[in-house]
Amino acid sequence: MREGNLVEELKIYFSDFFDVEEDIIESYGAVNISLINDMPLFVDPFLLFNSEKPEYQQIHAEIIRYLLFLQQQAGNYDTPPKGMLSSWYLFSEVKQTWLGFSLDGNGGRGLGKDFAENLFLGLKTIFREFGKEQIEILKTMKGKVAQKELDSIYVVLDISPLSGDEDSQLNQLVKILETRRKYDGSRLR
Question: Are 140 and 42 in contact (CB under 8 A)?
Answer without folding.
Answer: no
